[in-house]
Structures are given as structure tokens and as C-alpha cells.
Write a structure and sequence with these properties.
The complex is a heterotrimer of chains A (359), B (295) and C (358). Chain A is α/β, with parallel strands linked by helices. Helices cover 38% and strands 19% of the residues of chain A. In chain A, the strands form three sheets. Chain A has a six-stranded parallel sheet, with helices on both faces. Chain C has one domain: ABC transporter involved in vitamin B12 uptake, BtuC (Orthogonal Bundle), CATH 1.10.3470. Helix content of chain C is 70%, strand content 3%. A two-stranded antiparallel ribbon of chain C has the order 1-2. Chain C is globular and about 70 Å long. The mean pLDDT of chain C is 88. Classes of the chains: A alpha/beta (359), B mainly alpha (295), C mainly alpha (358).
Chain lengths: 359, 295, 358
């Protein structure tokens, strides 16, 4: 290839990126996904891929979906996103926080492609964001945990000290405390989203401290396997983890991204899509509570389901005052609820949690 | 209050996967071969062991299958390095890549299913934990007291001399590589069968790399490997245990410590050896070098 | 019975033919794999090897080959120099990470100042960081006789944990809503390592990789130090008699490969990656070892090997996109390619002869 051809092809690329990838009603809408893990991770990426399949099931021939799996955050993300755009996708869902800046960069080059970035906070004319209010789910599992603990010690396997995880710990604690004033919360930071051996160690460390109910933010089934061996209980995370039901998995908080994807693709198909900041919870179907098993007494199950339905209907916000911060300072007054801004930057524990947030 | 006995029992379990993998790599390195593919062999063991345990309902058959699969997947590495004279470092890295891909590919059918529970042995510990502990004196005896072990060490120390004495360097090394694969396979299977009870891609999460560090820490002795496995496993178990007890720990700095300790141990032993000019004890003389018999 | 006889020199034809044979063998074995997994083998192989170069979106993927290959080539060029002398730096991954951190540290300290000096200072800081991390095994080896293979490998783990510590602690973006990771250097013009000519993908790292290939070629074939290095690799005792100090060579080779790996880390963190995170090390340091051997430790070979690996990465992505080939299948295929390339290399170093005596 000579230099002239190279220049010509560069020019062609510029045209590709500027020209609208034309999409007429008779052609299927091309929907692309970029995943940080393999679709068989049984957790985060698996649930996103279930969402992709939900889109296919809902729209059939009107959509065509593709995905790139196991794309690490960092050096490869921007290229992978560009490849998805060049492959003619009309909308691209980027399903990991670390893709954020790459999404913004690529979106600027492909103004006619729509992008949605999961768990991020940067938006543009063709970039929306979506995330789950996982703390709503934790309110329900926290309630079950508070009722089920015999030692009055519940444990939380945390991943990283980021707002999403801190919201989860606070929400679980507040609602466990509500039904069991003697409850104590033990927190370990695993500094990983997925490392089965380490997650097992973390679960064992908590049990050695007298914890008998564990909530996990990490994504493997290792903590459940350890709980099973010691006859204690926990909850599924990210995925339903139903193979550990009825015990040790007594319920779960799982990510039902399909609820969002179907809505979002539907809006693109009818031309009403806008770049939004979607933060959906139980009411939107994005955060789902897995079946509460028979290992939980009926009245506790009813109580948890009632809470779930109240949150889902918007009648109750898990962060409703009076609430103080862990340092004793006042946060929310009686009846006051937390704003989304406060929650999305949450960097403190609520009063009663004695653990500390690593800095 | 942290109960030291309970903590130690936790540690015994937690360090089992890296103990198996590191004991296997110890034998491989004592034969003069550096196999950086431990992670790849572990993950293949994790999958095959899990699949066999799931299909037969017998976890012990799972471990046997894992050993077989680990040895089998080490075969391309053995062929490359022993017959085709390829560089061991590059071949080992390729083996890691290959093993991770292979396990992911063939793992699809057993996703989301659960392994049969294992019956605990004495002190509530899994029988494989006890087997791992038993392997330590067994491998020590093999390396230091058996004739086969003497030959293996001779091959690792100076392959030209061993060849001149009429030993088949290649055969010894292939056997060692296969054994290393089998042990890594069992270590990987411990994670899938005993720790998680499920198969997921990438579930060994870097344990194979830790095993490589442990062998260096051990100064190439079996008891040293046990100490290394407890140190590396212990730091994780202890920091999580301290966190659960509400103690603040600098996680990142603490997790760095065993690797720094390994470097210090390596330097101290090398320095002592350099000063006294004594042979034995430290890294095998032919470690990582190609062997080609001219006759 | 056959036996292997080392070659004293390799025919030029064979030099070229063996990698081609290896790729062909991989295509056949890979084709069988794809067919077993239920994919069209011809289409899969065309997608992986042909489409990134000449396919519908080739005008984008061709320059991306350079971007993907640049760090591999840059690191491998340095490593190969040491490998030729029998000095085994397998810790380039750690030197890459430290270079990324020290380079980024300059930018983060200067933020939000503007100035022409910032980017060059970052490059120097990255090189110095990588150099220093490479000098640790060199000095520990020279002073105490500790194996540079093992020390450099151990330092990779230490570097990975330093990166995590930086991402969650000292380097965390103060405007990042508490999320881990530093500021994005792409959005800080004085520190960014952008595309130099629009549409080419080429950033400073690509330029540096090209220069490294030229410089190491000059060093190895035209410079006395290169002669010493080759002599030390082939006949260490003879080289010592000829006045080559092994300690100097160890320090030179580990320092050089460390500096190049550190620069690669800096170019990536200021360019394609953008920020320091706990996952700043993406394995380029290890992949570069494979690249160095596939390139037979020769600068031109390394250039081609780096591009070939980049091709399989990008082609693998295309195969995922257009054929729904799972990432795992692509990974197995890459593993096979490496096995075949390493294995077939035997032909260039040994002659196969019939055993004459029984």
C-alpha cells in the first residue's frame, strides 16, 4: 500500500465517522454491548448479557445485538468502543465504570451513535448514563439479616470504598437496626469485585468474629459456599445465585438490567431517546429481590416483601431521617430524605457503624 | 479477641491451593525448569476437577481428574521446552494464556451448577488440606532421601554433568513438568470444588503467580514452601480477620509485604552463599536454561 | 532415529519461512478448533488475519495495529538486548507500571499548569522510574548474587500493589466522586499523549518504538557494547577474558530494558489508558517477553512479531463482533499461535539430521 492510498483511507475513515450510520425502519436496530468480564462470570457481566438477551426476546427481528466480552478497562477500551461503532451499531451500552472517559471520547467522534454508560457520571449529547439503586435492595436484605441473626452480628463483604458500596453498607445497617436494635455490623474490605479464594477468606474472617449473616458486595459464590459449610446464611449478589437456595442463600439482590435495556431500546425505536441519567431501583425493575426462601420465617418474609413493595411504589426512601453520621453529626432530620447528590458522593457511615472507611 | 487456633485452621484451608501449586513448581524448578504457566494449569485443573466432581458426584474423583488434566495441559510446554528447545519463560507465559482460554472455552456446560459437598476430615478440615500437608514431608523425603530425587536434583543443578553420567535429562524433566501440572491442577480444583463449589471463568484470580513467588521464598525446599504458603496466605487471612475485628489495616501496604520478604530472603541466601562459596540450598544451577545434548 | 544439530548460521530463506510455516500451521489447527466449536473456519481466520488489514473498517484498524504493537515493541526491544547477553529481565511488567506512575506523578504534580516542558519531563520521569525499578534486580544481583529473573519477577507484584495504593490513595482524582483512579491525563493538554497526525493513531509511543528498534539495531550490530553483549551471551568466560565486566553489562541491560518499559508505561498512561488505576498493568511487560522471542531477539523480528500479535488482538475483537466468536476461543487460538511460533523456531536454530550411530 502506498502513501496515497493510506491518505485516501484515512479520509474515508473521517467520512465514516461523520456520516450518519443510516438506519431505516426496515433494517434492524443494531445494539452493541461492551463487557468488562466474560459473559460466563456468573455475576456482573452475566447479568448484563441476560439484559441483552431480554432485548432480543422483546424486539425480535427489529434488533440485532452484538457484544465484546472481557475488554479490560484502560488501554483497550477506546479501540473496542470504536470497533463497535464502526461495525454499525446504532447504540452502544458500556457496562463498566472504567470505560467512562473512553465512552466520552468515542461518542464525540460518532455523534450519530447513541451511547449509554453504566455506573458513570459523565454525559454528553449522545451519552446517557444508567445505574441501579442497589441500596434499595440492601434495605430489604438488611431487614432479613437483622431478623435472622442470632448472634446480633451481621457482616458485610465490601469491595472498594466507593459511594455505591458505602450506600449499601449504610442501607443494610439502618434496616437491620430498625428491626433489631442490638445488631452490630462488621465490615471487611476485600479490594476486589471478584476473587473467590479471597472472598471465602473474608467470609470466614467474619464468621470467626461471630457473624452469622453475611451480605456481600463481591460477585462470586465463594462466601455462600463457606456459609453453607458452617450452617449460616447470606444473600446472592449481582446474580440470583439460586443454586445455593434455599439455604445458605435465603434471598438475593440482583441486577436486572434487561428492564432498563428494553425501555431504552424501545425509546430509540420510537425516536424518544434522550441522554439521561437513569438511576433506577426496585420500582423500575432494575434492582430485583430474589425469591425469599422457606429458610426465612413467614412473618419475616412478609415484612421484607412489604418493605420491598413500599420502596418499589415510592412510598418509602431507605435513607429517611432522623439519621446521624457516624461521627455523631446530624445528617437527616425527622422525615427528611437524602438527595441523589448526597447519595452519589456518599463517603461516610451512618451512626452506629463502628467500622471505618479506608481513606 | 482473635482466637489464634481458629485463625490457624482458617489459614490451613486458605493456603491449600497455593501450597499444592507451589510444591509442584518446586519439583519442576529443582529439575532445572522454570514454568511460568502455573496459573494456566491451575485454572484447567479448577475446571476439569469441578466438571468431574459434578458429573460423578464424587469430589475425590474430581481431584484425580484435575491432576490428570493439569499434567496433560503441561504437555505442550514440556514438548516445547524439552524437544523443541523453546525458551522456558516465553513458553510458560504462552501456557498461561492457553490454559485460561481453554478452561473458559470448555467451561460453558458446567456454568451455574453446584459441586457435591465434601465430607470434612479431622478438625473440620477438608481431606485435601491434610493431603497437602502430607505432601510436604513426602516431597522433602523424595528430594533429599530418595535416589530418584537425587537424580532430579542433579539434573537441575548441572544438566550437562547429569547427562554425562548417563541420566536421561529430558525424561526426568518431562516427568517433573507433568508432576508440577498435576499438583497445580489439584490446587486449582481446591478452589472450585472446596472453596466456591462452582465453576467461574478466571476463578484462580492470580493464585498461580503467588505460587511462583512462594517457591522463591522457600529457598527451593519443601518446608520452605509450606512456610511461604502460610506467609502469603496468612497475610490475607490475617488482614481480613483484623478488619472483621474492627482494626484498621493498611491493606495495600500489607499485601506488598510478603513479596518484599521474598526478595529479602532471596538476597540474604544468595549473599550468604556468595560469601561462603557453598553449593546447595539455593536456586538450582541450571534453572531456566535450555538443555541440548550434543551426543 | 533423528537428532538435532545446532546450526552455525541459518539460511535467509529459512529465517523467513519458519514464521510463515508456523502461522500456516496455526491456521490449520485453529481452523479445526473453530470448526469443532461450530464456526466457519475460513471466515474466522480471514476475520482475524485479513480484516484488520484490508477489511471494511481497515482504515481504522490498520493504524490501531501500531498503537497496540507500540508498547510491546518498545519493551521487547530493550528486553532482547539483555536476553542476548543472557540477562533475564522478566519483570518488565513492573518497570512498565512504575514508569507509568512516576511519569503520571509529574503531570499530577504540575496540574493544572500548562507548559511545553511538562510532557518531556513526564517521559524522562517515566524512563527514570522504569530504569530505577530495573536497577534493583541489577544491583541485588551484582552485590549479593541474587537471581535477576526472580527478583525482577517479585518486583512486578510489588509494583502492582503500589499501583493499587496510588489509585486509591495519593493519586486519587479529587474530583472523581470518591471513585478510584487518577485524573485523566488525556483531558490535561500539557500532559496528554494524543494522536500526532489525525487518523494515523500514531502517538509519541509509536515514534519511540520505531526509534527503539533503530537504536537497538545500531547498538547490537554497530556498537562495541553490542558486541560485548553478544559475546557475553555466547561465551561468557571468553568475554570476561576480553575485558567485558559482567556487572557493567547486567546494570546496562536491566537499566536499558527498565527505562524502555517505563517509557512504554508512561506513553500508555498519558495516551490510550489515560489514568492511573489499580489495573494500570495490563500484561504488556509479559507479552513483550513472548514478542522478544518470537522476533528471535532481533530488532526487525521484534517489530514484525509485535505487529503480528497486535493483529491477532484486533482481529480477535473483529471475530467477536462479526462472528460472535467467544473471547475464550480467540484466546485459545492466540495460545496456539504462540506455541507454534515458538516450536517452529527450532528449525532456525537446529538442523534435523539422521542419527548415524545407533
Amino acid at each position: 500500500m502506498n502513501r496515497r492510498q493510506l491518505i485516501a483511507s484515512v479520509a474515508a475513515l473521517t467520512t465514516i465517522s461523520l456520516a450518519a450510520p443510516t438506519w431505516a425502519q426496515d433494517e434492524p436496530l443494531k445494539v452493541g454491548f461492551i463487557y468488562v468480564g466474560p459473559i460466563s462470570d456468573g455475576g456482573w457481566t452475566y447479568q448484563h448479557d441476560q439484559g441483552r438477551l431480554a432485548v432480543e426476546a422483546e424486539f425480535g427481528d427489529r434488533v440485532e445485538t452484538t457484544y465484546l466480552e472481557s475488554v479490560p478497562e484502560g488501554v483497550d477500551a477506546e479501540r473496542a468502543l470504536t470497533q463497535l461503532a464502526l461495525a454499525g451499531n446504532d447504540v452502544i451500552y458500556a457496562t463498566s465504570f472504567g470505560y467512562m472517559d473512553a465512552v466520552i471520547n468515542v461518542a464525540a467522534k460518532f455523534p450519530d451513535v447513541k451511547f449509554e454508560h453504566n455506573t458513570g457520571y459523565k454525559r454528553a449529547d449522545n451519552v446517557g448514563t444508567y445505574d441501579g439503586r442497589f441500596y434499595e435492595g440492601r434495605a430489604v436484605t438488611g431487614t432479613i439479616a437483622g431478623r435472622m441473626t442470632k448472634t446480633n452480628k451481621i457482616g458485610y463483604i465490601a469491595t472498594f470504598p466507593i459511594p455505591e458500596v458505602i450506600q449499601g453498607i449504610n442501607s443494610a445497617y439502618i434496616h437491620a437496626k430498625k428491626v433489631n436494635p442490638d445488631v452490630e455490623m462488621k465490615v471487611v474490605w476485600a479490594y476486589t469485585w471478584f476473587d473467590p479464594a479471597k472472598e471465602a477468606d473474608a467470609a470466614n474472617a467474619l464468621m470467626a468474629e461471630g457473624v452469622d449473616v453475611i451480605l456481600q458486595h463481591t460477585n462470586s459464590t465463594a462466601p455462600l459456599a463457606q456459609l453453607q459449610q458452617q450452617g449460616k446464611i447470606g444473600f446472592g449478589q449481582a446474580a440470583d445465585m439460586a443454586s445455593f437456595a434455599p439455604s445458605p442463600r435465603v434471598s438475593s439482590v440482583y441486577n436486572n438490567w434487561g428492564a432498563h435495556y428494553v425501555k431504552s431500546v424501545g425509546r430509540i425505536l420510537d425516536g424518544t431517546w434522550k441522554p439521561e441519567a437513569v438511576w433506577g431501583g426496585i420500582g423500575d425493575g432494575i434492582v430485583a429481590i430474589g425469591e425469599i426462601t422457606e429458610a426465612v420465617p413467614a412473618e419475616v418474609k412478609a415484612e421484607a416483601e412489604a418493605l420491598r413493595d413500599k420502596i418499589g411504589a415510592g412510598e418509602y426512601h431507605p435513607f429517611t431521617g432522623p439519621l446521624n453520621k457516624a461521627d455523631g453529626s446530624a445528617w437527616l432530620a425527622e422525615g427528611q430524605t437524602a438527595t441523589d447528590e448526597e447519595l452519589s458522593g456518599m463517603n461516610f457511615f451512618v451512626e452506629g457503624i463502628t467500622a471505618e472507611i479506608p481513606q | 479477641m482473635i482466637d489464634p487456633v481458629a485463625l490457624f485452621l482458617l489459614l490451613l484451608s486458605a493456603s491449600t491451593p497455593i501450597l499444592f501449586a507451589a510444591l509442584g513448581e518446586l519439583v519442576v524448578e529443582r529439575a532445572g525448569v522454570l514454568n511460568l504457566g502455573v496459573e494456566g494449569m491451575m485454572i484447567v485443573g479448577a475446571l476439569s476437577g469441578f466438571a468431574a466432581a459434578y458429573h460423578t458426584g464424587n469430589p475425590f474423583l474430581g481431584f484425580a481428574a484435575a491432576a490428570g488434566a493439569g499434567a496433560l495441559v503441561a504437555l505442550p510446554f514440556a514438548i516445547l521446552t524439552q524437544f523443541l528447545m523453546s525458551n522456558q519463560v516465553a513458553s510458560g507465559l504462552a501456557l498461561t494464556l492457553f490454559g485460561l482460554g481453554l478452561a473458559a472455552l470448555f467451561g460453558k456446560p458446567v456454568e451455574g451448577v453446584k459441586a457435591p459437598a465434601m465430607i470434612s476430615g479431622p478438625l473440620g478440615l477438608n481431606w485435601i488440606v491434610w493431603l497437602g500437608l502430607l505432601m510436604v514431608p513426602a516431597i522433602w523425603w523424595f528430594l533429599n532421601r530418595s535416589r530418584a530425587g537425587l537424580i532430579l536434583r542433579g539434573v537441575g543443578e548441572n544438566h550437562d554433568a547429569a547427562h554425562a553420567l548417563g541420566y536421561n535429562v529430558r525424561r526426568v524433566r518431562i516427568a517433573a513438568i507433568a508432576f508440577g501440572g498435576a499438583m497445580a491442577g489439584v490446587g486449582g480444583a481446591f478452589i472450585s470444588i472446596a472453596t466456591v463449589l462452582q465453576w467461574t471463568e478466571g476463578m484462580t484470580a492470580g493464585a498461580g503467580w503467588i505460587a511462583l513467588a512462594i517457591v522463591v521464598f522457600s529457598n527451593w525446599t519443601a518446608p520452605g514452601v509450606l512456610a511461604g504458603a502460610w506467609l502469603f496466605g496468612g497475610v490475607t487471612v490475617l488482614q481480613l480477620r483484623l478488619q472483621a475485628a474492627g482494626v484498621r489495616v493498611p491493606v495495600q501496604l500489607l499485601s506488598m509485604a510478603p513479596y518484599l520478604a521474598t526478595i529479602i530472603v532471596l538476597v540474604a541466601i544468595s549473599a550468604r552463599q556468595k560469601l561462603s562459596r557453598r553449593a546447595g540450598g539455593t536456586a538450582p544451577g541450571s534453572l531456566g536454561q535450555d538443555f541440548h545434548a550434543l551426543r | 532415529m533423528i537428532r538435532l544439530v545446532p546450526r552455525t548460521d541459518t539460511p535467509a530463506l529459512l529465517q523467513i519461512a519458519t514464521p510463515i510455516l508456523a502461522v500456516l500451521a496455526t491456521m490449520i489447527a485453529g481452523g479445526i478448533l473453530f470448526a469443532i466449536m461450530g464456526h466457519d473456519p475460513v471466515a474466522a481466520i480471514r476475520t482475524i488475519f485479513w480484516d484488520p488489514l484490508f477489511g471494511p473498517a481497515a482504515s481504522y484498524s490498520r493504524p490501531q495495529l501500531l498503537v497496540k504493537a507500540a508498547p510491546l515493541i518498545l519493551i521487547a526491544s530493550g528486553l532482547a538486548v539483555g536476553f542476548r547477553a543472557g540477562i533475564w529481565n522478566i519483570g518488565a511488567e513492573g518497570q512498565y507500571i512504575i514508569g507509568a506512575i512516576t511519569g503520571a506523578a509529574v503531570a499530577l504534580a504540575a496540574y493544572p499548569a500548562e507548559g511545553m516542558w511538562i510532557f518531556p519531563a513526564m517521559v524522562i520521569a517515566g524512563a527514570v522510574g522504569g530504569w530505577a525499578w530495573g536497577m534493583i534486580p541489577a544491583l541485588l544481583g551484582n552485590w549479593f548474587g541474587a537471581s535477576e529473573i526472580l527478583v525482577s519477577l517479585m518486583l512486578v507484584y510489588v509494583a502492582q500493589r503500589i499501583a493499587a495504593w496510588m489509585a486509591f490513595g495519593p493519586m486519587k482524582n479529587p474530583e472523581g466522586f470518591g471513585m478510584p483512579g487518577s485524573r485523566n491525563l488525556q483531558q490535561y493538554p500539557a500532559a496528554a499523549n494524543p494522536e500526532l497526525v489525525a487518523g494515523t493513531g500514531a502517538h509519541w509511543g509509536v515514534v519511540a518504538a520505531a526509534l527503539a528498534v533503530l537504536a537497538t539495531w545500531f547498538l547490537m550490530s554497530r556498537h562495541i557494547r553490542g558486541f560485548h553483549i553478544r559475546a557475553a551471551g555466547i561465551a561468557p568466560r571468553a568475554a570476561r577474558f576480553a575485558g567485558v565486566k559482567p556487572e557493567t553489562l547486567v546494570a546496562f541491560c536491566l537499566g536499558l530494558s527498565g527505562a524502555l518499559a517505563g517509557m512504554a508505561g508512561l506513553f500508555e498512561v498519558a495516551g490510550p489508558a489515560g489514568q492511573i488505576t489499580d489495573k494500570v498493568g495490563v500484561g504488556y511487560g509479559f507479552t513483550a517477553i513472548i514478542v522478544a522471542f518470537l522476533g528471535r531477539l532481533h530488532p526487525v523480528g521484534i517489530l514484525l512479531a509485535g505487529l503480528l500479535l497486535a493483529l491477532t488482538y484486533i482481529g480477535g475483537e473483529l471475530a467477536q463482533l462479526t462472528m460472535n466468536l467467544p473471547a475464550a476461543t480467540v484466546q485459545v487460538f492466540q495460545g496456539m499461535l504462540l506455541f507454534f511460533l515458538l516450536g517452529f523456531d527450532l528449525l532456525t536454530r537446529y538442523r534435523i539430521a539422521r542419527r548415524i550411530t545407533a
